[in-house]
């Protein structure tokens, strides 16, 4: 039984020294000697995606904190304890006064299911306490569709007024629909030329590589921002360090408020990815090419044999750029006629 298992069984696990953002809650004393910490850290660092590692670490940190407050050992739990954790998540929180969304609860429980499955696979536990736990059913589709064309124009204007870095980042996100970690993880050296296209070499979710052609407005914004710089992080701070995701979130929220967008407090980097997908479909891009351009992980098997799948000329980034430009031209013409 799980509750009878000794807490020192993960002694065979290595003492990983991962990056700070990938570590779960650190206990008192030497964390490397804490079995639960070593298990969680080994699990987190087994994930290839930095974004996934950070997300898992946050969820495990929250869970370990709850266990500590309840006087529970994470390696001696039963299903009843996980049910109690899920029940507490569904109650109004002390900071927000609102319960966690069902999607949040489902994500946190999914993380724990992975953690304990890893523990069973490594012979740390004989049985997972997640067995039989009922998770909220959530839809895979989001009701959000991002920003409309006028809102994109307002956001880009606010970004241009803020500075060249902000304008380059927002331009890249709305024209190419990148995940925020895909954009921030790139170095200047990943900007290249291929068959006459200015492109950005990407590492997609799951470790897959891809090539994203850059439309002229994005190329111009990046050129102005880099000002001849040829190395280092594509998006860097004044001290030369890579811009991190929390800073990007704060920037986008600040720009959205400056642009006067009504949903400013709800906008995040993924909103701009939704914007790209919606704009591409509105611009008449086929669903297949939109899926390819966004890097969604559900490509048709038969498309592996489609020689035009990787044709840069068909990438939706160009159609999206034209779609945005057409809106600006219409607005300019209307002002001249008035």
Automatic annotation (TrEMBL):
Residues 1-31, 290-313 are annotated as: Disordered. InterPro entries: CB, DNA_brk_join_enz, Integrase-like_cat_sf, Integrase_catalytic, Integrase_recombinase_N, Integrase_SAM-like_N, Tyrosine_recombinase_XerCD. Keywords: DNA integration, DNA recombination, DNA-binding. GO terms for biological process: DNA integration; DNA recombination. Residues 142-321 form the Tyr recombinase domain. GO terms for molecular function: DNA binding. Residues 1-11 have a biased composition (Basic and acidic residues). Residues 34-120 form the Core-binding (CB) domain. It holds the Pfam family Phage_int_SAM_1. The keyword DNA-binding applies. The keyword DNA-binding applies. This is Tyrosine recombinase XerD. The lineage of its organism: Bacteria, Bacillati, Actinomycetota, Actinomycetes, Pseudonocardiales.
């Amino acid at each position: 039984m799980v509750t009878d298992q000794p807490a020192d069984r993960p002694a065979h696990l290595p003492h990983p020294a991962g990056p700070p953002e990938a570590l779960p809650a650190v206990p008192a004393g030497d964390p490397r000697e804490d079995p639960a910490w070593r298990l969680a850290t080994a699990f987190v660092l087994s994930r290839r995606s930095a974004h996934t590692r950070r997300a898992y670490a946050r969820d495990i940190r929250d869970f370990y904190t709850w266990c500590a407050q309840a006087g529970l050992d994470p390696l001696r739990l039963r299903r009843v304890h996980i049910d109690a954790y899920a029940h507490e998540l569904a109650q109004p929180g002390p900071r927000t006064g609102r319960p966690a969304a069902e999607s949040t609860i489902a994500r946190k429980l999914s993380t724990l299911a992975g953690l304990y499955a890893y523990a069973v696979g490594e012979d740390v536990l004989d049985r997972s306490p997640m067995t039989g736990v009922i998770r909220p059913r959530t839809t895979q589709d989001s009701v959000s569709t991002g920003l409309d064309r006028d809102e994109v124009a307002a956001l880009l204007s606010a970004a241009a007024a803020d500075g060249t870095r902000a304008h380059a980042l927002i331009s890249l996100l709305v024209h190419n629909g990148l995940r925020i970690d895909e954009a921030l993880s790139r170095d200047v050296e990943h900007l290249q030329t291929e068959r006459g296209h200015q492109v950005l070499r990407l590492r997609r979710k799951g470790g897959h590589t891809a090539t994203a052609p850059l439309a002229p407005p994005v190329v111009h914004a990046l050129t102005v921002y880099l000002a001849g710089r040829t190395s280092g992080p594509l998006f860097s701070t004044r001290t030369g360090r890579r811009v991190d995701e929390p800073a990007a979130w704060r920037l986008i929220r600040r720009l959205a408020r400056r642009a006067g967008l009504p949903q400013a407090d709800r906008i995040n980097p993924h909103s701009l990815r939704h914007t790209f997908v919606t704009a591409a479909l509105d611009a008449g891009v086929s669903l297949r090419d939109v899926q390819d351009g966004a890097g969604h992980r559900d490509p048709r098997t038969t498309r592996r044999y489609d020689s035009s799948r990787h044709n840069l000329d068909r990438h939706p980034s160009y159609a999206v750029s034209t779609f945005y430009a057409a809106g600006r031209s219409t607005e300019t013409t209307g002002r001249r006629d008035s």
